[in-house]
Design goal:
- By secondary structure, the protein is an all-alpha fold.
- It is built from twelve helices and two strands; from the N terminus they run βααααβαααααααα.
- It has a two-stranded antiparallel ribbon.
- The longest helix is centred in the middle third of the chain and has 38 residues, at 125-162.
- It starts with 18 loop residues before the first strand and ends with a helix.
Length: 300
C-alpha cells in the first residue's frame, strides 16, 4: 500500500457508510460491548475536560502578543513561536470531537444528549480505524509539543543566569512545566484509548462491499495494528534524536550557563590545576555572560 497513512494527513476525508445496524456485529467474539461503550464514554469526557490545558495555552498566547515586538529577535522567543504553532495544530485536530462522533454513532444521533436509550447501531470498521488514526496523529503532535516545551524551558532558563527578563522567564518556565505534565497524561490516555478501540474493532464489519473495499484500500491507508501507535511514536523519537542540533553541533553557550553543575565542575578543575580566569571575578561564567549579554543589548 503506497498511499500515505491517514495520521499523516492534515484533514483526511471520512469514509463512507460510517453507521451500520447492530445486527451485523460479530457475536462470535466474546466482548462486553456495554462495558466497552462505557469506557469510550469515559474517554470522551476525559478528552473534553481539558480546561486546565487550554488555559495554559491561552496564557502563552497572551504572553506572545504582549512581548512579540520586544522579544522577537531572540531565539528563545522563536522556540515559543514553534510551540504555539504545534498547539494550534493540536487544537485544530479536535480529537475530542472525533471521539464524540464515534460514540454517538452507536445511536446514529447528532449530539450526546440523544444517547440515552439502548444503542441500536454500530460504527463500521473503517469508522473506528479513522478514529484510531486521528489518535495516532494526536499522540505524535503531543510528542512534538513535549520536545518544544523542553526546548522552550531550556531557552528561558538561561535568563535566570543572565538576570534578564527574570519574571518573564519564570512565567514561561512555569507554563512549560505544567503543559509538559498535562501532555504526558494526555498521551497515556490516548494510548489506552487506542488499544481499547483496536481490541473492540475486531467485532465490527466493514461498511463497504468487497469491490468497494478493494478500491477504497487502494486509495486510502487506514491500516491499523496493535503496535502501530507504539511503532510510529518510536520512529518519530529516533528521528527527532538524530536531528537534534545539540548532537550534530557543539553545545551552545547557554547550556553551559544554565547548568550550574557544569560551572561548579569547571571551578573545581581550575582550582585543582591552578588555572586562572584572567579576571578578578570568581564567577567562571561572568566573561562569557557578558559576551552573551552583548548580543541582546545590541538587538535591543
Amino acid at each position: 500500500m503506497s498511499t500515505a497513512p491517514y495520521y499523516t494527513i492534515l484533514s483526511p476525508p471520512l469514509p463512507t457508510n460510517l453507521v451500520l445496524s447492530d445486527v451485523r456485529i460479530n457475536k462470535k467474539i466474546d466482548i462486553n460491548h456495554d462495558k466497552q461503550l462505557k469506557s469510550l464514554k469515559t474517554y470522551v469526557e476525559l478528552f473534553q475536560d481539558r480546561k486546565s490545558f487550554w488555559i495554559e495555552v491561552a496564557v502563552l498566547d497572551r504572553l506572545h502578543y504582549k512581548n512579540i515586538n520586544q522579544q522577537r529577535p531572540f531565539h528563545r522567543f522563536k522556540r515559543s513561536m514553534e510551540l504555539r504553532r504545534l498547539l494550534k495544530r493540536l487544537k485544530s485536530l479536535q480529537i475530542n470531537k472525533e471521539l464524540e462522533r464515534l460514540y454517538i454513532s452507536f445511536w446514529d444521533a447528532k449530539s450526546l444528549d440523544k444517547c440515552t436509550s439502548k444503542w441500536n447501531y454500530i460504527p463500521s470498521k473503517e469508522s473506528i480505524q479513522y478514529t484510531m488514526h486521528r489518535l495516532i496523529g494526536a499522540a505524535l503532535l503531543l510528542d512534538k509539543i513535549k520536545i518544544a516545551l523542553l526546548e522552550t524551558y531550556r531557552a528561558n532558563s538561561t535568563l535566570l543566569k543572565l538576570e534578564h527578563f527574570v519574571s518573564l522567564a519564570i512565567v514561561y518556565m512555569g507554563i512549560c512545566s505544567r503543559l509538559y505534565k498535562l501532555c504526558h497524561i494526555w498521551v497515556n490516555q490516548i494510548e489506552e484509548c487506542y488499544h481499547m478501540l483496536y481490541t473492540w474493532s475486531t467485532c465490527f464489519p466493514s461498511g463497504l462491499k468487497n469491490k468497494e473495499q478493494k478500491a477504497f484500500n487502494a486509495q486510502h491507508n487506514l491500516q491499523c495494528d496493535a503496535d502501530t501507535l507504539k511503532t510510529v511514536r518510536t520512529q518519530y523519537a529516533q528521528n527527532a534524536l538524530k536531528s537534534k542540533s545539540s548532537i550534530q553541533h557543539k553545545v551552545h553557550l547557554e547550556t553551559y550557563l544554565a547548568n550550574q553543575s557544569v560551572v561548579d565542575k569547571v571551578k573545581s578543575m581550575q582550582k585543582e590545576y591552578g588555572i586562572s580566569n584572567g579576571s578578578d571575578s570568581e564567577d567562571i561564567g561572568e566573561d562569557m555572560m557578558d559576551f552573551e549579554d552583548l548580543g541582546e543589548v545590541i538587538e535591543r
